[in-house]
Amino acid sequence: MTTPRQADIVIFGAGIAGLWTHAYLSNLGYNALLLESDKIGGVQSIASQGIIHSGLKFAFAGKISKLAKSISAMPERWRDALNEKGEVDLSGAVINAQSQLLMIPPGFLGDISKTVAKKTLGKNVREIAQSEWPEEIKNSGFKGSVIFMDERVLDIPSVVQTLMQPYKDSIKAIPKNDAKTPLDFLEKNGIEAKKILFTTAGENLGIAATLNHEKGLETQSRPLLMAMMKPAPFPLFAHFVGKTDKPVATVTTHTDQNGKRVWYIGGLVAERPVTAPPEDSIKAAKKALASYLPGVDISEAQWAVIPIARSEGKSKTDGWMPDTPTLHRAGNVLYGWPTKLTFAPMLADAVLKELQNSNIEPSNTRNDWSFLTSAPLAQPPWENATWKRS
Ligand SMILES: Cc1cc2nc3c(=O)[nH]c(=O)nc-3n(C[C@H](O)[C@H](O)[C@H](O)COP(=O)(O)OP(=O)(O)OC[C@H]3O[C@@H](n4cnc5c(N)ncnc54)[C@H](O)[C@@H]3O)c2cc1C
Asked: Which residues are within 8 A (CB) of 301 and not within 5 positions of it... i.e. 6 or more apart?
């Protein structure tokens, strides 16, 4: 017998991890409550590039093993969700690109790694002859090989809205002050949870420490200073492959609310402390564009930079991201990091398994959470950035 304020699970943090898990479990009949202390869409999620990785980038970088393999199962889960056949309904989400390019200057990638990558992830990779290159790349002055990758790029604001829509009545705000003592907030409001999940990214560790749950919990933060450029001359979804195992730049294209095209640039260009001078990322982005697309005129462009700390469970391998999502357990409290947006379904699987292992069945009830307030939606970084000629 459940009391009116008993939830099967209370999830803190409405980034992709919280939103996907909340929708997934709610679809299965679990009575789930999702609480957000700031904006729905998260910090990292709304700032992500929206690439649903299949492991190709990692395979080409020689990281074929576990990461490339575990991630390669994900695109199908997302594709099913986009086609209304999945565990959550993403049919309202916008696909920014159906595929991406790997742009490889001559001599930058040995034939062996091309062959191995193709063998591992074969049918989704295809080198394209120069005559078949997109017109803009043909005219960009790029020299080298272009590999077509069958990987989608999603518009994250639309993913967020689509995921929250069916269950928005159980997505609520927790005031920032209360978010520091989240369990007290539940008690104060008479909310009982059979299981609690924190998907609060960088805040997970602090919460775990407050609750004495940090034993065995190891985390890492990989900071980024992402560069943004507008107006972008054409839609580009590409990794500029360099001589190391990470792309020199990863460029995705987005449209701001005034209809202006934005190039959002990550990869090595952005890998620097959030306290580094923002101009460093802009300089690196310009250098990458000048080197890979020398024929493209960006002299009139405006630039902006957004600092963001990626937060993950600790990698066991050399500063790269972990191979899978991380889930830390302490009694009936869980702490989760998806590691990548792409891995959100896998994190949700792990949470479901925890519920099942604790014999928590879906209660098939929905509570009235209207005594709690609603949280606003997050905006992607290019909307609030300070733009300037640089
Ligand atoms: C610049 C960038 C680009 C990326 N690009 C990609 C990509 O293209 N593809 C990909 O697969 N991955 C990408 N990633 C990684 C991916 O974005 C993250 O792994 C993923 O979004 C993390 O989701 P999350 O829900 O754990 O965290 P977040 O999205 O950060 O959400 C955490 C939420 O918890 C809330 N919160 C914090 N404390 C509390 C509290 N006490 N109570 C309630 N709520 C709280 C926060 O306000 C926030 O809304 C990228 C990451 C970055 C930074």
From this structure: 229, 230, 231, 232, 389
Would 83 be classed as within a structural domain?
Answer: yes
3-class DSSP state of 200: coil
Ligand 1 is surrounded, with C-beta below 6 A, by 12-18, 35-38, 42-45, 47-51, 53, 174, 179, 182, 199-201, 203, 224, 226, 266, 308, 310, 337-342
* Separation of CA 383 and ligand 1 centre (Å): 18
Residue that is written with structure tokens 């004495």 in the block: 212
Structural domain of 267: 6-389
Q: Which of 19, 39, 45 to mutate to test the pocket of ligand 1 (most atoms within 8 A of CB)?
A: 45
* Ligand 1 centroid – CA 150 distance (Å): 24
- The whole-chain average pLDDT of the chain stands at 91
- Asked, for residue 287, whether it belongs to a domain, the answer is yes
Mutate which of 19, 20, 38, 48 for ligand 1 pocket (most atoms within 8 A of beta carbon):
48
- 29 lies in a domain? yes
Query: For residue 329, what are the β-bridge partners?
Result: 334
Mean pLDDT of the region 341-370: 97
With the CA atoms of 113, 96, 320 and 279 taken in that order, what torsion angle do they form, in degrees rounded to the nearest 10? Answer: 110
Q: Is 60 inside any structural domain?
A: yes
Tens digits of residue pLDDT in 114-126: 555 555 555 667 8
Q: What is the CATH number of the domain that holds 298?
A: 3.50.50
The 10 Å CB-count burial string (b at 16+, else e) for 291-326 is ebbeebebeebbbbbbbbebbbbebeeeebbbbbbb
Strand (E) or helix (H) holding 259: none
User: Is the entire prediction scored with pTM above 0.85?
Assistant: yes
- In order, the DSSP letters of 40-55 are BTTTTTTTS--B---S
Residue 63: pLDDT band with limits 50, 70, 90? low
